């Protein structure tokens, strides 16, 4: 599903002494099936933005279009259940979303809430366990008896069990070891290749550079840039002005350039770095 924001503003605590804008006149479009990353400093409006996509928050002004559904300040919650099935959200520390007595009950809760029979929901739950690389034997266990990494996977499986067409990920790999991080990012990439629209909030610029096709940059409740990763990460002045880091591959390439290596454009991923560097070292890439 394509996602369009048009002049969206969200005001927290309107009319009160602590009133402030979480979003200010934000407009953009995410194409259907895109892998989009949202970056920016803490407090810039990233989480506020994505919570509008499944209508956990509604705009104070402006309009949001998700597929064919329009969301405004007047939209009633009772009309939003179909949208929330289509738009899944994995919060920061998703293991805090767990609540059921067993892993099976936790994963199958969402599908049953959206109309699946218990038998169908449990079959889906086992499929999701396999998808997130957990053994079927954990289904009967309490999710709170699992390791932190396993709990994270159970929470993600619970979101995926409702088979969303849009998946929002708010720092989904925070705190995981490198292997767990890579396995989950590979899963999200696989889902995107199968047609799921992925929206990733991340401070990991390597992930943004490697996976994203579109990058939205937030700063103080404003959308200040909507561009491709290559253009953003090759714009050093822009990154410095907004306190954003370059990917490690780009930083390394800059150091190499000072030592005489040539780059027709600064690489932003390890693959791009190797492609340009290996021939200069007398080797062959690929």
From TrEMBL:
The keyword ATP-binding applies. One of its GO terms (molecular function) is ATP binding. Keywords: ATP-binding, Cell membrane, Membrane, Nucleotide-binding, Translocase, Transport. One of its GO terms (cellular component) is ATP-binding cassette (ABC) transporter complex. It is found in: Cell membrane. Its EC number is 7.-.-.-. Residues 3-245 form the ABC transporter domain. It is a peripheral membrane protein. NCBIfam families: ECF_ATPase_2. ATP-binding (A) component of a common energy-coupling factor (ECF) ABC-transporter complex. Forms a stable energy-coupling factor (ECF) transporter complex composed of 2 membrane-embedded substrate-binding proteins (S component), 2 ATP-binding proteins (A component) and 2 transmembrane proteins (T component). Belongs to the ABC transporter superfamily. Energy-coupling factor EcfA family. This is Energy-coupling factor transporter ATP-binding protein EcfA2. It comes from Bombilactobacillus mellis.
């Amino acid at each position: 599903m394509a996602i369009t924001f048009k002049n969206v503003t969200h005001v927290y605590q309107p009319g009160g002494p602590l009133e402030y804008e979480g979003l200010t006149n934000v407009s953009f479009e995410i194409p259907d099936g895109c892998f989009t990353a949202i970056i920016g400093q803490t407090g810039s409006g990233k989480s506020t933005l994505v919570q509008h996509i499944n209508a956990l928050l509604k705009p104070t002004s402006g309009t949001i279009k998700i597929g064919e559904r329009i969301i405004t300040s007047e939209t009633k919650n009772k009309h939003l259940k179909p949208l929330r099935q289509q738009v899944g959200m994995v919060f920061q520390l998703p293991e805090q979303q767990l609540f059921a007595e067993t892993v099976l009950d936790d994963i199958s809760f969402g599908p049953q809430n959206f109309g699946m029979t218990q038998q169908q929901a449990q079959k889906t739950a086992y499929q999701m366990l396999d998808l997130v690389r957990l053994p079927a034997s954990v289904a009967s266990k309490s999710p709170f008896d699992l390791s932190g990494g396993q709990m994270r996977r159970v929470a993600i499986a619970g979101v995926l069990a409702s088979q969303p067409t849009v998946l929002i990920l708010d720092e989904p790999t925070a705190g995981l070891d490198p292997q767990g991080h890579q396995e989950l990012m590979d899963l999200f990439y696989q889902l995107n290749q199968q047609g799921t629209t992925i929206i990733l909030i991340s401070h990991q610029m390597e992930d943004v550079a490697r996976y994203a096709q579109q990058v939205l940059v937030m700063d103080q409740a404003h959308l200040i840039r909507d561009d491709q990763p290559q253009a953003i990460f090759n714009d050093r002045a822009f990154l410095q002005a907004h306190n954003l880091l370059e990917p490690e591959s780009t930083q390394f390439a800059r150091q190499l350039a000072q030592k005489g290596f040539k780059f027709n454009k600064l690489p932003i991923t390890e693959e791009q770095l190797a492609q340009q560097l290996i021939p200069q070292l007398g080797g062959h890439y690929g």
